[in-house]
Amino acid sequence: MEKKISRRTFLKNSAIAGVGLGLAAGGVMPFRAWGSEPLKIMVGTTFSGAYAETGDYVRKGIQLAVEMHGGKVLGRPVEIVERDVPNPSEGVKKAQEAVEKLGAKFMFVSPSSSTVLAVMEYVAKQQALMFASAGADEITGKSCNQFTFRWPVATWSAIREVVPRIIDVYKAKTFYTITPKYVFGEDLLRNTQEVLNAKGLKLLGNSDHPMGESDFSSHLTKAMAAKADCVLFLNFGGDTVNALKQANSFGLNKVSRIACVWGSGLTQMKAIGPKILEGVIMGLQYFYKIGAPGNKKFVEAFRKKYNETPNYLAANPYINIKLLLESIERAKTDDPVKVMKAIEDFEYEGLTGTEKFRACDHQAVKPYYTLQCKAAGAMKDPDDFADIIGSSTNIPPCAEAGCKFS
Protein backbone atom coordinates (compact mmCIF):
# COMPACT_ATOMS: atom_id res chain seq x y z
CA MET A 1 0.00 0.00 0.00
CA GLU A 2 1.43 3.39 -1.02
CA LYS A 3 2.19 5.66 1.92
CA LYS A 4 0.81 9.18 1.59
CA ILE A 5 3.06 12.11 2.43
CA SER A 6 1.49 15.15 4.05
CA ARG A 7 2.08 18.62 2.66
CA ARG A 8 3.82 19.58 5.91
CA THR A 9 6.21 16.62 5.69
CA PHE A 10 6.94 17.35 2.03
CA LEU A 11 7.73 21.00 2.74
CA LYS A 12 9.91 20.06 5.70
CA ASN A 13 12.00 17.62 3.63
CA SER A 14 12.17 20.07 0.74
CA ALA A 15 13.56 22.69 3.10
CA ILE A 16 16.21 20.25 4.28
CA ALA A 17 17.14 19.51 0.69
CA GLY A 18 17.76 23.20 0.07
CA VAL A 19 19.98 23.78 3.07
CA GLY A 20 23.21 22.50 1.45
CA LEU A 21 26.18 21.74 3.64
CA GLY A 22 25.65 23.38 7.01
CA LEU A 23 28.37 22.86 9.60
CA ALA A 24 28.03 23.15 13.37
CA ALA A 25 29.94 21.41 16.16
CA GLY A 26 28.23 18.28 17.38
CA GLY A 27 25.61 18.30 14.63
CA VAL A 28 24.81 16.47 11.43
CA MET A 29 25.41 18.61 8.34
CA PRO A 30 23.61 17.24 5.30
CA PHE A 31 23.76 17.69 1.56
CA ARG A 32 20.25 16.29 1.20
CA ALA A 33 18.52 15.12 -1.91
CA TRP A 34 14.89 14.01 -1.83
CA GLY A 35 14.51 10.24 -1.96
CA SER A 36 18.22 9.26 -1.72
CA GLU A 37 20.19 7.70 1.12
CA PRO A 38 23.12 9.95 2.12
CA LEU A 39 26.71 8.75 2.33
CA LYS A 40 27.86 9.71 5.83
CA ILE A 41 31.36 10.81 6.75
CA MET A 42 32.25 11.44 10.38
CA VAL A 43 34.60 14.35 11.06
CA GLY A 44 36.13 14.16 14.51
CA THR A 45 38.32 17.07 15.58
CA THR A 46 38.71 19.66 18.37
CA PHE A 47 36.62 22.76 18.93
CA SER A 48 37.94 23.58 22.40
CA GLY A 49 41.18 23.60 24.37
CA ALA A 50 44.71 24.16 23.06
CA TYR A 51 43.84 23.08 19.51
CA ALA A 52 40.47 24.84 19.27
CA GLU A 53 41.38 26.66 16.04
CA THR A 54 41.50 23.31 14.27
CA GLY A 55 37.73 22.79 14.14
CA ASP A 56 36.76 25.85 12.14
CA TYR A 57 39.35 25.27 9.43
CA VAL A 58 38.68 21.54 9.18
CA ARG A 59 35.04 22.46 8.60
CA LYS A 60 35.93 24.94 5.86
CA GLY A 61 38.26 22.53 4.05
CA ILE A 62 35.73 19.71 4.06
CA GLN A 63 32.85 21.94 3.02
CA LEU A 64 34.86 23.14 0.02
CA ALA A 65 35.88 19.59 -0.98
CA VAL A 66 32.28 18.36 -0.89
CA GLU A 67 30.94 21.35 -2.79
CA MET A 68 33.65 21.13 -5.48
CA HIS A 69 32.71 17.46 -5.95
CA GLY A 70 29.10 18.48 -6.53
CA GLY A 71 27.71 17.53 -3.12
CA LYS A 72 27.07 13.94 -4.17
CA VAL A 73 28.94 10.68 -4.66
CA LEU A 74 27.53 7.76 -6.68
CA GLY A 75 24.39 9.88 -7.03
CA ARG A 76 23.93 10.08 -3.24
CA PRO A 77 24.10 13.24 -1.12
CA VAL A 78 27.15 13.56 1.12
CA GLU A 79 26.35 14.05 4.81
CA ILE A 80 29.03 15.24 7.22
CA VAL A 81 28.66 14.07 10.83
CA GLU A 82 30.75 16.51 12.83
CA ARG A 83 31.90 15.65 16.36
CA ASP A 84 34.15 17.24 18.97
CA VAL A 85 36.84 14.74 20.03
CA PRO A 86 39.00 16.45 22.70
CA ASN A 87 40.54 13.21 24.02
CA PRO A 88 40.92 9.50 23.15
CA SER A 89 37.89 8.27 25.10
CA GLU A 90 35.61 10.84 23.49
CA GLY A 91 37.13 10.03 20.10
CA VAL A 92 36.23 6.34 20.39
CA LYS A 93 32.79 7.14 21.84
CA LYS A 94 31.93 9.51 18.99
CA ALA A 95 33.30 7.13 16.35
CA GLN A 96 31.24 4.29 17.80
CA GLU A 97 28.10 6.43 17.70
CA ALA A 98 28.75 7.49 14.09
CA VAL A 99 29.42 3.97 12.84
CA GLU A 100 26.97 1.88 14.86
CA LYS A 101 24.04 4.30 15.20
CA LEU A 102 24.35 6.54 12.14
CA GLY A 103 25.88 4.10 9.66
CA ALA A 104 29.00 6.12 8.80
CA LYS A 105 31.65 4.06 6.99
CA PHE A 106 34.26 6.79 6.54
CA MET A 107 35.87 9.36 8.82
CA PHE A 108 38.50 12.07 9.22
CA VAL A 109 40.06 12.45 12.70
CA SER A 110 42.51 15.08 14.00
CA PRO A 111 44.69 16.53 15.51
CA SER A 112 45.81 14.66 18.65
CA SER A 113 47.98 11.59 18.05
CA SER A 114 46.63 9.88 21.15
CA THR A 115 43.04 10.34 19.96
CA VAL A 116 43.88 9.16 16.45
CA LEU A 117 45.62 6.04 17.79
CA ALA A 118 42.61 5.15 19.95
CA VAL A 119 40.10 5.62 17.11
CA MET A 120 42.34 3.63 14.75
CA GLU A 121 41.85 0.49 16.83
CA TYR A 122 38.09 0.89 16.70
CA VAL A 123 37.82 1.52 12.93
CA ALA A 124 39.97 -1.53 12.20
CA LYS A 125 37.57 -3.75 14.13
CA GLN A 126 34.57 -2.21 12.37
CA GLN A 127 36.26 -2.10 8.94
CA ALA A 128 35.43 1.57 8.56
CA LEU A 129 37.92 3.70 6.62
CA MET A 130 39.70 6.59 8.33
CA PHE A 131 41.97 9.47 7.31
CA ALA A 132 44.18 10.38 10.25
CA SER A 133 45.72 13.81 10.77
CA ALA A 134 48.38 13.51 13.46
CA GLY A 135 52.14 13.19 13.60
CA ALA A 136 53.07 10.21 15.80
CA ASP A 137 55.34 7.81 13.92
CA GLU A 138 53.46 4.71 15.06
CA ILE A 139 50.27 5.72 13.18
CA THR A 140 51.85 4.38 10.00
CA GLY A 141 54.43 2.39 11.96
CA LYS A 142 53.97 -0.25 14.64
CA SER A 143 50.30 0.65 15.28
CA CYS A 144 49.25 0.84 11.62
CA ASN A 145 46.20 -0.90 10.22
CA GLN A 146 44.71 -1.32 6.76
CA PHE A 147 41.78 0.96 7.44
CA THR A 148 43.83 4.07 8.32
CA PHE A 149 45.50 6.50 5.89
CA ARG A 150 47.62 9.53 6.78
CA TRP A 151 48.36 12.56 4.58
CA PRO A 152 50.66 14.52 6.94
CA VAL A 153 54.17 13.10 7.04
CA ALA A 154 55.33 11.62 10.34
CA THR A 155 57.59 13.32 12.88
CA TRP A 156 60.49 11.22 11.51
CA SER A 157 60.13 12.94 8.14
CA ALA A 158 59.53 16.45 9.47
CA ILE A 159 62.62 16.48 11.66
CA ARG A 160 64.84 15.26 8.83
CA GLU A 161 63.74 18.21 6.68
CA VAL A 162 63.71 21.02 9.23
CA VAL A 163 66.59 20.39 11.65
CA PRO A 164 69.28 20.23 8.91
CA ARG A 165 67.92 23.54 7.51
CA ILE A 166 68.17 25.11 10.97
CA ILE A 167 71.74 23.92 11.34
CA ASP A 168 72.63 25.38 7.94
CA VAL A 169 70.79 28.73 8.18
CA TYR A 170 71.46 29.46 11.87
CA LYS A 171 74.92 27.82 11.91
CA ALA A 172 73.64 26.13 15.05
CA LYS A 173 75.75 23.61 16.92
CA THR A 174 73.84 23.42 20.20
CA PHE A 175 70.11 23.04 20.81
CA TYR A 176 67.56 23.16 23.62
CA THR A 177 64.05 21.76 23.14
CA ILE A 178 60.65 22.56 24.63
CA THR A 179 58.34 19.58 24.17
CA PRO A 180 54.69 18.62 24.85
CA LYS A 181 54.56 15.57 27.07
CA TYR A 182 52.65 13.03 24.97
CA VAL A 183 53.38 10.66 22.11
CA PHE A 184 53.62 13.35 19.39
CA GLY A 185 56.12 15.47 21.29
CA GLU A 186 58.09 12.45 22.44
CA ASP A 187 58.47 11.31 18.82
CA LEU A 188 59.66 14.75 17.72
CA LEU A 189 62.19 14.84 20.55
CA ARG A 190 63.51 11.34 19.82
CA ASN A 191 63.96 12.13 16.14
CA THR A 192 65.66 15.45 16.93
CA GLN A 193 68.14 13.63 19.15
CA GLU A 194 68.83 11.09 16.39
CA VAL A 195 69.56 13.79 13.80
CA LEU A 196 71.76 15.81 16.16
CA ASN A 197 73.68 12.69 17.24
CA ALA A 198 74.27 11.72 13.61
CA LYS A 199 75.75 15.17 12.95
CA GLY A 200 77.85 15.23 16.12
CA LEU A 201 75.89 18.15 17.59
CA LYS A 202 74.59 18.64 21.12
CA LEU A 203 71.16 18.76 22.70
CA LEU A 204 71.91 20.73 25.88
CA GLY A 205 68.59 20.00 27.51
CA ASN A 206 64.83 19.59 27.19
CA SER A 207 61.82 20.87 29.10
CA ASP A 208 58.55 18.90 28.98
CA HIS A 209 55.16 20.56 29.34
CA PRO A 210 51.55 19.27 29.36
CA MET A 211 49.34 19.87 26.34
CA GLY A 212 47.42 23.11 26.84
CA GLU A 213 50.14 24.74 28.97
CA SER A 214 49.37 28.37 29.81
CA ASP A 215 52.52 29.38 31.67
CA PHE A 216 55.85 28.68 29.96
CA SER A 217 57.96 30.76 32.34
CA SER A 218 59.79 27.83 33.97
CA HIS A 219 60.51 26.24 30.58
CA LEU A 220 61.80 29.50 29.11
CA THR A 221 63.97 30.21 32.14
CA LYS A 222 65.69 26.85 31.70
CA ALA A 223 66.06 27.41 27.96
CA MET A 224 67.67 30.82 28.45
CA ALA A 225 70.03 29.45 31.07
CA ALA A 226 71.23 26.79 28.61
CA LYS A 227 72.34 29.50 26.12
CA ALA A 228 71.92 27.15 23.16
CA ASP A 229 72.41 28.38 19.61
CA CYS A 230 68.80 27.40 18.91
CA VAL A 231 65.76 26.81 21.11
CA LEU A 232 63.56 24.38 19.21
CA PHE A 233 59.84 24.37 20.02
CA LEU A 234 58.32 20.92 19.40
CA ASN A 235 54.73 21.81 20.27
CA PHE A 236 51.76 22.70 18.06
CA GLY A 237 48.79 25.03 17.70
CA GLY A 238 47.84 27.12 20.72
CA ASP A 239 50.78 25.78 22.72
CA THR A 240 53.23 27.22 20.19
CA VAL A 241 51.39 30.56 20.06
CA ASN A 242 51.54 30.92 23.86
CA ALA A 243 55.14 29.73 24.05
CA LEU A 244 56.47 32.12 21.41
CA LYS A 245 54.60 35.13 22.76
CA GLN A 246 56.00 34.48 26.22
CA ALA A 247 59.46 33.81 24.78
CA ASN A 248 59.38 37.27 23.24
CA SER A 249 58.44 38.83 26.58
CA PHE A 250 61.31 36.98 28.24
CA GLY A 251 63.78 38.16 25.59
CA LEU A 252 64.70 34.64 24.52
CA ASN A 253 65.62 35.85 21.02
CA LYS A 254 68.43 37.94 22.56
CA VAL A 255 70.04 34.75 23.88
CA SER A 256 69.20 32.09 21.25
CA ARG A 257 67.72 31.73 17.80
CA ILE A 258 64.18 30.31 17.76
CA ALA A 259 62.63 27.62 15.54
CA CYS A 260 59.41 25.60 15.40
CA VAL A 261 59.31 22.18 13.76
CA TRP A 262 55.55 21.61 13.42
CA GLY A 263 53.66 24.78 12.56
CA SER A 264 50.02 25.08 11.53
CA GLY A 265 50.65 27.95 9.12
CA LEU A 266 48.83 31.20 8.52
CA THR A 267 46.37 31.17 11.42
CA GLN A 268 49.21 30.53 13.84
CA MET A 269 51.41 33.19 12.20
CA LYS A 270 48.63 35.78 12.47
CA ALA A 271 48.09 34.92 16.13
CA ILE A 272 51.79 35.36 16.92
CA GLY A 273 52.52 38.34 14.65
CA PRO A 274 55.50 39.32 12.47
CA LYS A 275 57.26 41.27 15.22
CA ILE A 276 57.76 38.07 17.20
CA LEU A 277 58.22 35.78 14.20
CA GLU A 278 60.86 37.80 12.34
CA GLY A 279 63.66 35.43 11.31
CA VAL A 280 62.05 32.37 12.96
CA ILE A 281 62.37 29.10 11.04
CA MET A 282 59.19 27.02 10.95
CA GLY A 283 58.39 23.58 9.56
CA LEU A 284 55.05 23.05 7.82
CA GLN A 285 53.14 20.26 6.12
CA TYR A 286 51.59 22.82 3.79
CA PHE A 287 51.84 26.49 2.78
CA TYR A 288 49.69 28.41 0.35
CA LYS A 289 52.74 29.45 -1.72
CA ILE A 290 53.37 25.88 -2.94
CA GLY A 291 53.43 26.13 -6.75
CA ALA A 292 51.73 22.81 -7.57
CA PRO A 293 48.72 23.08 -9.96
CA GLY A 294 46.42 21.31 -7.49
CA ASN A 295 47.32 23.81 -4.79
CA LYS A 296 46.76 26.82 -7.03
CA LYS A 297 43.22 25.56 -7.75
CA PHE A 298 42.59 25.00 -4.05
CA VAL A 299 43.89 28.42 -2.95
CA GLU A 300 41.84 30.19 -5.63
CA ALA A 301 38.65 28.31 -4.68
CA PHE A 302 39.20 28.80 -0.94
CA ARG A 303 39.78 32.52 -1.31
CA LYS A 304 36.72 32.88 -3.49
CA LYS A 305 34.47 31.06 -1.03
CA TYR A 306 35.82 32.29 2.31
CA ASN A 307 37.64 35.52 1.42
CA GLU A 308 40.80 34.32 3.14
CA THR A 309 43.92 32.32 2.34
CA PRO A 310 43.87 28.64 3.39
CA ASN A 311 46.18 27.16 6.00
CA TYR A 312 47.28 23.60 6.71
CA LEU A 313 44.32 22.96 9.00
CA ALA A 314 41.97 23.45 6.03
CA ALA A 315 44.24 21.96 3.35
CA ASN A 316 44.66 18.56 5.01
CA PRO A 317 40.96 17.64 5.33
CA TYR A 318 40.24 19.19 1.93
CA ILE A 319 42.63 16.90 0.05
CA ASN A 320 41.63 13.85 2.14
CA ILE A 321 37.90 14.24 1.52
CA LYS A 322 38.47 15.16 -2.13
CA LEU A 323 40.49 11.96 -2.66
CA LEU A 324 37.96 9.89 -0.69
CA LEU A 325 35.02 11.01 -2.81
CA GLU A 326 36.96 10.49 -6.04
CA SER A 327 38.06 7.01 -4.86
CA ILE A 328 34.49 6.00 -4.02
CA GLU A 329 33.51 7.03 -7.56
CA ARG A 330 36.38 5.04 -9.08
CA ALA A 331 35.58 1.99 -6.95
CA LYS A 332 31.87 2.36 -7.85
CA THR A 333 30.96 1.35 -4.30
CA ASP A 334 30.98 2.58 -0.71
CA ASP A 335 32.47 -0.70 0.52
CA PRO A 336 35.44 0.52 2.65
CA VAL A 337 37.61 -2.48 1.66
CA LYS A 338 37.19 -1.80 -2.05
CA VAL A 339 37.65 1.94 -1.55
CA MET A 340 40.84 1.22 0.39
CA LYS A 341 42.21 -0.75 -2.55
CA ALA A 342 41.30 2.09 -4.89
CA ILE A 343 43.39 4.51 -2.81
CA GLU A 344 46.50 2.36 -2.35
CA ASP A 345 49.41 3.44 -4.60
CA PHE A 346 47.05 5.55 -6.74
CA GLU A 347 48.82 8.68 -7.97
CA TYR A 348 46.66 11.79 -7.88
CA GLU A 349 47.06 15.55 -8.28
CA GLY A 350 47.67 16.68 -4.72
CA LEU A 351 48.40 19.98 -3.04
CA THR A 352 52.14 19.40 -3.14
CA GLY A 353 52.35 17.91 -6.63
CA THR A 354 51.80 14.28 -7.57
CA GLU A 355 51.05 12.35 -4.37
CA LYS A 356 50.09 8.81 -3.39
CA PHE A 357 49.38 6.70 -0.32
CA ARG A 358 51.77 3.75 -0.10
CA ALA A 359 50.13 0.35 -0.06
CA CYS A 360 52.63 -0.92 2.51
CA ASP A 361 51.69 1.45 5.35
CA HIS A 362 49.12 3.95 3.96
CA GLN A 363 51.48 6.87 4.52
CA ALA A 364 51.20 9.68 1.96
CA VAL A 365 54.35 10.27 -0.05
CA LYS A 366 54.68 14.07 -0.09
CA PRO A 367 57.21 16.76 0.87
CA TYR A 368 57.60 18.59 4.16
CA TYR A 369 58.49 22.29 4.03
CA THR A 370 60.81 24.69 5.84
CA LEU A 371 59.92 28.39 5.94
CA GLN A 372 61.64 31.46 7.34
CA CYS A 373 59.44 34.23 8.64
CA LYS A 374 59.77 37.84 7.48
CA ALA A 375 59.96 41.21 9.18
CA ALA A 376 56.73 43.21 9.02
CA GLY A 377 58.33 45.70 6.63
CA ALA A 378 59.23 42.93 4.16
CA MET A 379 55.67 41.58 3.88
CA LYS A 380 54.05 42.28 0.49
CA ASP A 381 50.53 41.61 1.77
CA PRO A 382 48.85 40.61 5.07
CA ASP A 383 49.43 36.88 4.38
CA ASP A 384 53.08 37.18 3.33
CA PHE A 385 54.55 36.05 6.64
CA ALA A 386 57.23 33.73 5.29
CA ASP A 387 58.97 32.23 2.28
CA ILE A 388 59.64 28.56 1.63
CA ILE A 389 63.40 28.03 1.96
CA GLY A 390 63.45 24.27 1.43
CA SER A 391 61.47 21.07 1.11
CA SER A 392 62.17 17.36 0.84
CA THR A 393 60.41 14.02 0.83
CA ASN A 394 61.88 11.87 3.58
CA ILE A 395 59.79 8.75 4.02
CA PRO A 396 61.46 5.70 5.57
CA PRO A 397 61.50 2.58 3.36
CA CYS A 398 58.57 0.26 3.94
CA ALA A 399 60.85 -2.35 5.45
CA GLU A 400 61.98 0.15 8.09
CA ALA A 401 58.64 1.84 8.83
CA GLY A 402 57.57 -0.88 11.26
CA CYS A 403 54.12 -1.36 9.75
CA LYS A 404 52.75 -4.89 9.46
CA PHE A 405 49.16 -5.21 8.35
CA SER A 406 47.38 -8.15 9.97
Top keywords for this entry?
406 residues, seven-stranded mixed beta sheet, disordered N terminus, alpha/beta
What would your notes on this structure say?
- By secondary structure, the protein is an alpha/beta fold.
- Helix content is 41%, strand content 20%.
- It has helices at residues 7-19, 53-68, 88-100, 113-126, 155-170, 183-198, 217-226, 238-250, 266-272, 274-277, 293-306, 312-331, 336-343, 398-401; strands at 28-30, 39-45, 72-73, 76-84, 106-109, 129-132, 148-150, 174-180, 202-209, 230-233, 257-263, 281-284, 348-349, 354-357, 364-365, 368-373, 386-392.
- Strands 1, 2, 3, 4, 5, 6 and 7 form a seven-stranded mixed beta sheet that branches. A seven-stranded mixed beta sheet has the order 9-8-10-11-12-16-17, with helices on both faces.
- Helix 2 packs parallel to helix 12 and helix 5 (155-170) crosses helix 6 (183-198).
- It starts with 6 loop residues before the first helix and ends in a 5-residue tail after the last helix.
- Residues 1-26 and 28-35 have low confidence and may be disordered.
Write the layout of secondary structure elements.
Layout: H1 7-19, E1 28-30, E2 39-45, H2 53-68, E3 72-73, E4 76-84, H3 88-100, E5 106-109, H4 113-126, E6 129-132, E7 148-150, H5 155-170, E8 174-180, H6 183-198, E9 202-209, H7 217-226, E10 230-233, H8 238-250, E11 257-263, H9 266-272, H10 274-277, E12 281-284, H11 293-306, H12 312-331, H13 336-343, E13 348-349, E14 354-357, E15 364-365, E16 368-373, E17 386-392, H14 398-401
Parallel strand pairs: 2-4, 2-5, 5-6, 6-7, 8-9, 8-10, 10-11, 11-12
Antiparallel strand pairs: 1-4, 3-4, 12-16, 13-14, 14-15, 16-17
Helix pairs in contact: 2-12, 3-4, 5-6, 8-9, 12-13
